[in-house]
Amino acid sequence: MRKYHTKYSRPTETQYALIGQIVCEYSISDNITKKTIARMSGAHPYLGACAVDKLSSNNKIDALKNLVAIHKIQFGCTLVSHDLCEDIIHYATELDVHRAIRNKFAHWVWMRQTDETVFGFDGNNKPTENKRQNGSVEYSLDELKNLKLSIDELIDLGVDINDELAQSSNTFVERLREHWP
């Protein structure tokens, strides 16, 4: 039976673990994003999550940005504070950066270059002059650890945003109704 990886090209257990953590942790941030969209829309988190469940990550990020724009322009930051809107924009921007990274780890082929470095490629063999355009990238263990930590920080920011939105949710819907046409 033919194997794609040899024992020397297969990522180490540590490399596999870090790649898996990056992909799994992004899923947590995606779930937090659903709740954030629901809360910003004035919906119960479970109901709102159902409404956005089938949206792609890109569309969820766009929804966050659009909701912030509505809260700033339409409601003048009376329902969600200006500072919290800025935090949400920062969260959405970082989420987009991490989405692209997560997609590489989830969809590319990863091999051990050394015990300290992994090499990933998209499987598209078309030649280009630029290595980045070539669809390949290398990460050291330290870079993988830093990516995992940055996703953890993103999750913490998302939780903080949701906690702040939840604290004001008791009166949020009532205040939102004041703005209904």
Q: What's the SSE pattern?
A: HHHHEEEHH
Structural class by helix and strand composition: mainly alpha
Instruction: Summarize the amount of helix as a percent range.
Output: 55-70%
Q: What's the total number of strands?
A: 3
Put simply, the count of helices is 6
How much β-strand is present in the residues?
5-15%
Walk me through this protein's architecture.
The protein has 181 residues and is mainly alpha-helical. It has a domain of 123 residues. Helix content is 64%, strand content 9%. It contains six helices and three strands, in the order H-H-H-H-E-E-E-H-H. A three-stranded antiparallel β-sheet has the order 1-2-3. Helix 1 packs parallel to helix 3, helix 1 runs antiparallel to helix 4 and helix 1 runs parallel beside helix 5. The radius of gyration is 20 Å and the shape is elongated. The mean pLDDT is 87.
